[in-house]
Design goal:
Order of helices and strands: EHEHEHEHEHEHHHE
Largest sheet: 7 strands, parallel
CATH superfamily: NAD(P)-binding Rossmann-like Domain
Radius of gyration: 17 Å
Number of domains: 1
Distance between the termini: 31 Å
Strand order of the largest sheet: 3-2-1-4-5-6-7
Number of helices: 8
Shape: globular
Helix content: 40-55%
Bound molecules: nicotinamide-adenine-dinucleotide
CATH topology: Rossmann fold
């Protein structure tokens, strides 16, 4: 397999929420494949910046709160100013709120939908407009979940948002594939990050989850390195609207 299929030399990627967890691992993997990174975060992504620069790539630090849409245009403008163009968008930032459906609050509904779904759509729209201006297509990689496929429990707004991400990935692929824009998603399984700390701290839930994962272990952020480089690279040019589970076999059970 020619290495150039996965080569991102000279390209640039916006990665949201890359100061920690899965976003950090994906930003570093893209950088190691040759890609400059625009990191969109609420706080200082010091470790990620150091790892990206350690891989010999430029890291541009953009501060934004994706709970609102105010920053969308400035994220695109900062990326174009820094790199002259955008090649890849990774919509990774996301949050989760847990409560019984009978008592789930409107605030917990809106907070999750705003970050996990609304910002994903409007940032994708703004970046796709830039892709169209550039005239050479581009790659959008959304971050879905097992709860894009399953119902889950006590996470109503999260399940709604991630099921929405899967549908939106298909819709955007339908509208933009002919423009050379690949829209796909990665659905991580149960990965050891801040997002799942509460689950891993609950011994009963932790044991239940582990017993159901064919691979026999929680996923690590680095397990997303290959999939994100694939979906960002020429190797995936004819892959459109797909949500790729990276789940240790969870969905195969
Ligand atoms: P995490 O909590 O470690 O990271 C989430 C990132 O999103 C952080 O960088 C955070 O600062 C950022 N973020 C949250 N709200 C934001 C806002 N308003 N504005 C800007 N940035 C914001 O969790 P993670 O596990 O690394 O999650 C990354 C993505 O992967 C999320 O979309 C999450 O839903 C998804 N996911 C995680 C798992 C898992 O098992 N960990 C499984 C499936 C999907």
């Amino acid at each position: 397999m020619p290495a150039r299929l996965f080569d991102l030399t000279g390209k640039s990627a916006i990665v949201t929420g890359c100061n920690t967890g899965l976003g950090a691992a994906m930003a570093i993997a893209l950088a190691e494949a040759g890609c400059g990174i625009v990191g969109v975060n609420r706080s200082d992504p010091a470790d990620t910046r150091a790892r990206v620069e350690g891989a010999g790539q430029r890291f541009v630090d953009v501060r934004a709160d994706l709970a609102a849409l105010d920053a969308v245009d400035s994220i695109v403008a900062a990326s174009v100013e820094a790199f002259g163009r955008i090649d890849v968008l990774v919509n990774n930032a996301g949050i989760i709120r847990r409560n019984d459906a009978l008592t789930f609050s409107e605030a917990d509904w809106d907070a999750v939908i705003d970050v996990n779904l609304k910002s994903v759509f409007f940032l994708s729209q703004a970046v796709a407009r830039q892709f169209v201006r550039q005239g050479a297509g581009g790659k959008i990689i959304n971050v879905a979940s097992m709860l894009s496929f399953q119902g889950g429990i006590r996470v109503a707004s999260y399940t709604a948002s991630k099921s929405g991400v899967l549908g939106l990935t298909r819709l955007l692929a339908n509208e933009w594939a002919a423009k050379g824009i690949n829209v796909n998603a990665i659905a991580p399984g149960y990965m050891a990050t801040n997002n799942t700390a509460a689950l891993r701290d609950d011994r009963e839930r932790n044991d239940e989850i582990l017993a159901r994962i064919p691979a026999g272990r929680w996923g690590a952020p680095d397990d997303l390195a290959g999939p994100v480089v694939f979906l960002a690279s020429p190797a995936s040019d004819y892959v459109h609207g797909h949500t790729l589970a990276v789940d240790g076999g969870w969905l195969a059970r």
